[in-house]
Amino acid sequence: MGMSLGSLAGMLRDQFKRDSRRRPPGPIPVVPLSLPAELPSDGVRVTWFGHSAFLLEFEGRRLLFDPMLSPSPSPVPGFGSKRYSGGSLPLEPEDFPMLDAIILSHDHYDHLDKASIRKLRNKAHYFIVPLGVKKRLIQWGVDPGRITERGWWEELQVAGLTLACTPARHFSGRGLGDRNGTLWCSWVILGERHRVFFSGDSGYAPHFKDIGDKYGPFDLTMMECGQYDERWAAIHMMPEQTVQAHLDVRGGLLIPVHWAAFTLGFHAWDDPVERAVLAAHAHGVRIATPRIGETVDAMAGDYPQTAWWRETTIR
């Protein structure tokens, strides 16, 4: 990240600065989710759980990404930023039906959660992870035979789909002694008729265009948008860069994620979506802004566009 002493001092000062806009004034709304036993054999539907956790129903398969479903993304239970929804989730981990796969982008606490994995470890046929993350899942009770690791630009077949582990510009680690000991990545999901891209966590860089050239265009992109700061722009995109990255990968419908669950940066809690919507409109990008738990049909002409967070802000 290349932090200077001045930047570090500024971050420490900002950490203790009181700013009510970093969190919503009350719990944000959550739409309860009920999943039928059988899925349609076609289509692309996505349900966002807040931050970067989402369920992708893709050509008859169910894939769960970065399922951090605990109250706080902290190594110490009870500490750290608390979930904006007050702990409410669209669907509790114990209530998920069997999933085709759980897919992880990297091992940071706000993406890879021990408690969530333990609750979901028997709910998925496969766990797909970047290099080095397998060992963590094994420690938490996941059957090693159901875990597959991949490095950048490597593909695999899962439930009749092609998944590609693609680059991201970020870092990894869960403690003081394991910095960059595992890989971080984005993911491409390819079916017979549709394509989806998930950015994982990443700063803006040329890899987005490389991914678009190789695998685009995409029907849907789930793009990181939140917890940013100019001081760490190398590893987290600003909202305007989120929209540009969507254009670089040749995306169709954009859903901004990595916001609306926790305060991990210094910006106002709703700043990511406000800026992303403005940038999307300026560039003619189709952008959906679902409530947490609201399912989006990416192939339909009608998708959520209401500014629901403004109602939350003035409540």
From TrEMBL:
Signal peptide boundaries: none
Residues of the Metallo-beta-lactamase domain: 50-246
Highest taxon listed in the record's lineage: Bacteria
Catalyzed reactions per annotation: 3',5'-cyclic CMP + H2O = CMP + H(+); 3',5'-cyclic UMP + H2O = UMP + H(+)
Species for this entry: Paenibacillus rhizovicinus
Designated name of the protein: Metallo-beta-lactamase domain-containing protein
One example GO MF annotation: N-acylphosphatidylethanolamine-specific phospholipase D activity
Cellular component terms per the entry's GO annotation: cytoplasm
Function as written in the Swiss-Prot or TrEMBL entry: Counteracts the endogenous Pycsar antiviral defense system. Phosphodiesterase that enables metal-dependent hydrolysis of host cyclic nucleotide Pycsar defense signals such as cCMP and cUMP.
Gene3D superfamilies in the cross-refs: Ribonuclease Z/Hydroxyacylglutathione hydrolase-like
SMART domains: Lactamase_B
